[in-house]
Amino acid sequence: MNKQEIYDFLKNKDIWYEITEHKAVFKTDELNGIYLPYKEYNAKNLFVRDDKKRNYYLITVKGNKRVDLKDFRNKNGTRPLSFASENDLMNITNLIAGSVTPFGLLNDNDLKVTFCLDKDFFNDKGIIGVHPNDNTATVWLKAEDLTKIIQEHGNMVNIVEL
User: What is the CATH number of the domain that holds 142?
Assistant: First the structure.
């Protein structure tokens, strides 16, 4: 799905969302100086794989958090993890580096990726901000709706403490 298809998908599912268009952003720190209505709910996404290239994970955390892959491995019982290649990212999610987002899992037709979402997104307003498969916008929606979308697609979803 491309950006417009994501918008249409959300509209057809009757899911509340807001869109913030902005310049292309490849890293979380590039959001400085860009107005975001729910900045504290913006997501950072890490696309990782295990050492055997058998299991892939999309780890999504609040933008101000750091992820220790060794700690994640220990808490979640995975094999050793490292960042997946740009080729794997493209082949599995049809995304390029800098555009990683949970919506990319809707392109994961073989259901190779487990979605690991930081439980902190369910606190307070329950909002999350992610790219719509394009890094020139942020879509704000309820974290509960996002997890439901990914589960309905067929990917495994884990709510994790990070």
Answer: 3.90.960.10
Q: Residue 148: exposed, middle, or buried by beta-carbon count in 10 A (0-12, 13-18, 19+)? A: middle
Domain carrying residue 96 = 3-160
Give 76-136 as a 3 state SS string: HCCCCEEECCHHHHHHHHCCCCCCCCHHHHHHCCCCCEEEEEEHHHHCCCCEEEECCCCCC
Count of structural domains within the chain? 1
Question: Hey, what amino acid is at 61?
Answer: V
Quick: pLDDT tens for 51-61: 999 999 999 99
Q: How far apart are CA 148 and CA 135, in angstroms?
A: 22
pTM of the model: 0.93
